[in-house]
Write a structure and sequence with these properties.
This protein has three helices and three strands; from the N terminus they run αβααββ. It is α+β, with helices and mostly antiparallel strands. The chain has one domain (about 5-65): Arc Repressor Mutant, subunit A, CATH 1.10.10. The protein has a three-stranded antiparallel sheet. Helix 2 (about 25-30) packs across helix 3 (about 35-45). The longest helix is centred in the middle third of the chain and has 13 residues, at about 35-45. The chain is globular and about 35 Å long.
């Protein structure tokens, strides 16, 4: 039985393939996962400086970028 890759690696791969994507777009690219799990991992990656979060309060979106 193949092992699943860590969620952080999956998120970084999505962001690498889709620069400046939104949190919602990342969640759509990872079906079968809860939005809250993706959000918590994105926050962890941000604190670890592996991912940048750009908040747009006017559009109520969060864009993800690699540092």
């Amino acid at each position: 039985m193949p092992q699943e890759r860590p969620l952080g690696d999956q998120i970084l791969e999505v962001v690498r393939a889709n620069p400046d994507c939104t949190l919602e777009e990342v969640t759509q690219q990872l079906p079968g996962l809860y939005w809250s799990d993706v959000f918590l991992e994105v926050k962890r990656l941000s604190r670890a400086r592996q991912l940048r979060l750009i908040h747009n309060s006017l559009l109520f979106t969060t864009t993800l970028r690699l540092p």
